[in-house]
Design a protein that fits this description.
alpha/beta; 37% strand; 3 helices; 4-stranded mixed sheet; Immunoglobulin-like; 179 residues
């Protein structure tokens, strides 16, 4: 009888642990992009970014849509990503270039306090202009992140290169459209 009770208790405990997969909260504010010089130090066009509401936040795993929501009036977005998977998180809104992030959560573990791992990232979306290469760039990952246990590691060099390339292509077009 003790063996049966012990086995049942272990089964319940194990199922409870499986139900509590580690999660990462990917969140931040989505704002309208303001062009800066590629170093990010000086605004090319003086301006202030403003929050963008109703941006679709689409989460894909293995090419399949697993969740979606929209940014709030304040531009705030948030998605929970479970451990064990790779995710593409895409931000899109009509009239803007989309932005895609790859997040590898295969090795994600709970922080010591058992909460979701927090991954804050503010997103800039830029108004769309006619340019084939910029449209292609918006379909490719802008940022790539991997999680090792409970440490978040962004490929900062790739993000910097993407930012510089986008600005080099976009800056003349945006300045031309202002005239």
């Amino acid at each position: 009888m003790k063996k049966i009770i012990t086995l049942l208790w272990l089964a319940v405990l194990t199922s409870g642990l499986q139900a509590q997969k580690a999660q990462m909260l990917f969140y931040g504010v989505i704002e309208e992009g303001v062009l800066m010089d590629p170093s990010g130090d000086v605004a090319v066009k003086p301006g202030k970014s403003r929050p963008i509401k109703d941006v679709k936040v689409l989460v894909y795993a293995a090419g399949e849509l697993v969740s979606s929501n929209v940014s709030k009036e304040t531009g705030f977005y948030g998605v929970l990503l479970k451990s064990g998977g790779n995710y593409d998180v895409i931000f899109e809104k009509d009239g803007y270039f989309s932005r895609k992030y790859e997040l590898n959560c295969k090795n994600l573990e709970h922080p010591a306090d058992g909460s979701a791992l927090k991954c804050p990232l503010d997103i800039d979306l830029f108004k769309a202009v006619e340019h084939a290469e910029l449209k292609e760039m918006s379909k490719k990952p802008y940022g790539i992140c991997s999680v090792n246990r409970y440490e978040i590691q962004w490929n900062k060099e790739a993000m910097r290169k993407n930012k510089v390339k986008f600005y080099e292509l976009a800056q003349p077009l945006y300045l031309q459209n202002e005239k």
